[in-house]
Amino acid sequence: MGALSEPVDPMSLIPLQPRDYLTLFTLVPEDRHGYGIAKQIERDSNGQVKVDQANLYRSLKRLKAIGLIKEADAHDAEDPAEERRRYYALTPLGRTVASLEAARLARLTARARSLELIPGGGAGD
Fold it and tell me: How far apart are the first and last CA of the chain?
């Protein structure tokens, strides 16, 4: 797949698959290479989500084709192996989609609290 020829409506991409959201989420603060993305997803999910490299790179390729991420400029590194790694960054569309998904999840979380499924929003708190 190549670059998109027509603008994409960010709302048409919502809801995201959980791993896609976690991937975008890891790229919000900084560019990362594939292994760094996988490790950050594991940290962000408290070890509940583990991403194998084959699936990760398929996902990165798809997110890139959609226009949510792009390959970032090479990073300076003391280790030559580090210089060969491909880094990924959010595109403006990717940031918008991540923000829309975060807002959607926040609304669901607020509703779950109001139903007392999780602490923090019930009348008895």
Answer: 51
Query: pTM score, two decimals?
Result: 0.83
Which of 117, 105, 113, 119 lies closest to 25 in space, CA to CA? 105
Q: Could you state, in order of their start, the residue ranges of all structural domains in the chain?
A: 15-114
The domain 15-114 is classified under which CATH number: 3.40.50.620, 1.10.10.10, 2.60.40.1880, 3.30.70.3190?
A: 1.10.10.10
What tens-digit pLDDT sequence spans the chain (125 residues)?
Answer: 445 567 899 999 999 999 999 999 999 999 999 999 999 999 999 999 999 989 999 999 999 999 999 999 876 655 556 667 899 999 999 999 999 999 999 999 999 999 999 986 555 44
